[in-house]
């Protein structure tokens, strides 16, 4: 009797033998991109690149295609969003010669599949997944069902033909309904673009990576000639700071394996609303509420009757608990209208009791702060942390200490 299964039966492999399988990686040749990918593209992997429209997804993938083609690799760029002419124009502007890059204006995933099997490119780019559809399936182009079905076909293609694939997915500001989020579990790696279209600064963050660390970021600047890797992001991010103003605090954050200095800003202003506003951009809203709560209860700083806005300059997102101390400093500084000294850097978690807790990677954070010319660190350091030249620790162990420090204008 014929087997009803459509695929070959797999043979078990001893676990001890699997270690020798090294993932073959292709270096794209764009440092910040290779870094966030975990050291280049893994052959036969499917990478999803999400982000708001206009943030730079197509630009990055076109530059990646350009870099790979210069290294003699072939790329098939499926464009459902823009015409090949439009992309060609952009490529010329970016100085991409385009030898080895083929453009395919196609929305039917079955046709894409056929072309890929014929050409067998080193890299397949789908820009975007919302524009391709599976003809075997009912449902509008861009619907959740269609986007899922197309992705799963591309995933199979990537695996059994060994085609490295990158797909673009649009995310809307309010969190994307039919967007990339529904695809996260299907693909090998997920990268999201962060940043503000009105600023040049762009962070490409890895949120999932089956072949590497999922906490890496790549840092870029959008320029006239496309995305440029930023080698000293702290300098760029702090560059916009002028004369010390109240409500501004510098944080030494850790992004993946690297420290990064950011400016946390707070604005505290009398409210005309029955329920005052608490608005956070780039910081988790619940963190803001908690830090406000702790300041009110443990340090007698009241925000009643005030609207509170906080944000991270440059459109960066911070999700680590170490933001608590700089956030508290910015809030108290704004509430009391007392600027902090420009030499201060801060990091640390604040517990519900009001105590400041140490956070990991203190030494790396201190070094980065010293490198940028900051001289005093508000942080609780574990005894294992050595002295970092050029920077002195300001011993503040709880929120009352933070408030006293701001009030003393020290
Ligand atoms: P794009 O890559 O088309 O965004 P996405 O694919 O995520 O929708 O980026 C478009 C924006 O980038 C657009 O506002 C113009 C800007 N841009 C530059 O500033 N410099 C450049 O060299 C390029 C190609 C784009
Ligand atoms: Mg695009």
How would you describe what is shown here?
The protein has 410 residues and is α/β, with parallel strands linked by helices. It folds into 2 domains: 22-231, P-loop containing nucleotide triphosphate hydrolases (Rossmann fold); 236-407, 2-Layer Sandwich (Ribosomal Protein S5, domain 2). It contains 11 helices and 20 strands. It has helices spanning 15-18, 31-36, 57-70, 84-93, 109-119, 144-161, 233-238, 285-299, 324-336, 362-371, 399-407; strands spanning 25-26, 41-42, 46-51, 75-79, 101-104, 123-127, 164-170, 189-195, 201-209, 217-223, 226-229, 248-255, 258-270, 278-281, 306-312, 344-346, 349-350, 356-357, 376-378, 392-394. A 9-stranded mixed sheet has the order 5-4-6-7-3-8-9-10-11, sandwiched between helices. The protein has a 7-stranded mixed sheet with strand order 14-15-13-12-16-19-20. A two-stranded antiparallel sheet has the order 1-2. Helix 8 (285-299) packs across helix 9 and helix 9 (324-336) packs across helix 11 (399-407). The longest helix is centred in the middle third of the chain and has 18 residues, at 144-161. It is elongated and about 70 Å long. The termini are far apart. The model has no long low-confidence stretch (mean pLDDT 91). The chain binds thymidine-5'-diphosphate (TYD) and magnesium ion. Magnesium ion binds at residues 57-58, 81, 127.
């Amino acid at each position: 009797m014929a087997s009803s299964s459509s695929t070959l039966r797999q043979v078990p492999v001893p676990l001890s033998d699997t270690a020798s399988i090294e993932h073959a990686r292709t270096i794209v040749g764009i440092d910040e991109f290779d870094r966030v990918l975990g050291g280049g593209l893994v052959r036969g992997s499917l990478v999803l690149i999400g982000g708001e429209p206009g943030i730079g997804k197509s630009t990055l993938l076109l530059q990646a295609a350009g870099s790979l083609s210069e290294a003699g690799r072939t790329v098939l760029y499926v464009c459902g969003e823009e015409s090949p002419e439009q992309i060609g124009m952009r490529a010329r502007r970016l100085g991409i010669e385009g030898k080895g890059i083929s453009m395919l204006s196609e929305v039917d995933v079955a046709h894409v599949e056929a072309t890929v099997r014929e050409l067998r490119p080193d890299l397949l780019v789908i820009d975007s997944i919302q524009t391709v559809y599976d003809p075997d399936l009912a449902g509008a182009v861009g619907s959740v069902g269609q986007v899922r079905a197309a992705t799963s076909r591309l995933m199979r293609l990537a695996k059994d033909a060994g085609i490295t694939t990158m797909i673009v997915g649009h995310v809307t500001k309010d969190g994307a309904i039919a967007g990339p989020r529904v695809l996260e579990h299907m693909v090998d790696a997920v990268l999201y673009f962060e940043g503000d279209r009105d600023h040049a600064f762009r962070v490409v963050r890895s949120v999932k990576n089956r072949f590497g660390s999922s906490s890496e970021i790549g840092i870029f600047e959008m320029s006239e000639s496309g995305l440029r890797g930023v080698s000293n992001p702290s300098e760029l991010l702090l560059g916009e700071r002028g004369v010390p103003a109240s409500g501004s605090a510098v944080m030494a954050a850790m992004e993946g394996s690297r420290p990064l200095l950011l400016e946390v800003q707070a604005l505290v202003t009398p409210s005309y609303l029955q329920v005052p506003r608490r608005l956070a951009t780039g910081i988790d809203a619940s963190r803001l509420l908690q830090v406000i709560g702790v300041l009110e209860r443990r340090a007698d700083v009241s925000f009643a009757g005030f609207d509170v806005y906080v944000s991270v300059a440059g459109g960066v997102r911070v999700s680590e608990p170490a933001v608590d101390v700089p956030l508290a400093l910015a809030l108290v500084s704004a509430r009391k209208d007392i600027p902090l000294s420009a030499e201060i850097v801060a990091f640390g978690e604040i517990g519900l009791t009001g105590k400041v807790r140490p956070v990991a990677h203190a030494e790396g954070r201190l070094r980065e702060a010293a490198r940028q010319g900051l001289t005093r660190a508000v942080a609780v350091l574990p005894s294992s942390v050595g002295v970092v030249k050029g920077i002195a620790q300001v011993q503040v162990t709880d929120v009352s200490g933070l408030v006293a420090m701001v009030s003393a204008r020290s």
